[in-house]
Amino acid sequence: MQDGYDVLLIGGGLVGASLGCALAGSGLRLGLVEPARLSGARPGGYDDRVIALSAGSQRVFGTTGVWSAIAPQAAAIRAVHISERGRFGVATLEAAEQGVPALGYVAPARAIGQALVERLSGVAEVTLLSPARFTGLQAAGDRALVSLDTGSGRRDVTARLVVAADGAESPVRAALGVPALRWGYGQSAVIANVSTERPHRHVAYERFTDSGPLAMLPMTEGRSALVLTVRDGDADRLMGMDDASFAATVEQRFGGRLGRLLRVGRREVHPLALVKARAHFRSRVALIGNAAHTLHPVAGQGFNLGLRDVAALAEVIVDAARAGEDLGADQTLARYARWRAGDQWRTVGFTDLLVRLFGNPLLPVRAARGLGLLAFQALPPAKRLLARHAMGLTGPLPRLARGLAL
User: Are residues 249 and 323 in the same domain?
Assistant: First the structure.
């Protein structure tokens, strides 16, 4: 059995579904492959896992028609507070100084996923192939032949363009033989939602400690999302602590800006690594999101970088279709690759530099970091440049990130 699509998306997570929504209404026939059964509404709770969205990402979601469903459950980031434990020097970024209502937003991944699925389910040109698992691919002239395992047998589909949005360990990337730069940081992120004695007032905190960065992100209902980076050897010990001991450890590392931790939600731990594919495409296949790059969570750039991939690739695809060009041709995909290469390497380099710079224990480096934060705070042009980068508003922006329809 074979079905033919213009664009076949492998991976129905947040990045893959976002590309589906970006292409909805383009007149292209879309297929979306996802191993897990895609579902709509799910109840929220205290332990909702969240994603930090840049202002540019909010624009993309607004332009593709899903932000209105996400907004009621999102908390605005109106300021970012940057400090280092045990050192002088503090830097802040303020939305008011940048002339924007918010530097970004913090929204439950559940709410984002629900909004995307509901949008896709109402688009006639989109076929959800779920549950189904990618098992193989080969280019065949002007199309790619993709094999899927549906659980009840093999299914073959064809597409003019295949998009891999299937995560950091991308089976599509592996099947294509695309090499990837990767290294582990020797760190893990312990994440949990917490309630604090003092209100967060929509401030996001990034505090660097001797074991790695600690972030507190504002959430709705007075909660904050904690991302505590620790050395791999300490992760099991922290996960084994009772809530009171864990709260005391966080308070010691974070300081007293939000007072005591009154409640600690369910904890999870995730090993941290950098993965960067050495190519953005192969014949009839493009890589986006974590299939192309997986970052350290410092500065919260990972998903936002993937959503910029989505906005750029959607624009390239739609423009090619309108011009009567081959969607999966090398020259079409090369335009996407050239567009995304600079942003991807800048963002990878920026996050990696932060981890290495603030992880250096040498006294002269530590002193320079404090002086650097003081100097940064006193230089409005430098603050504006960093704020624009953090908001995803630098470089040649795709139309969706400028609030313009495709």
Answer: no
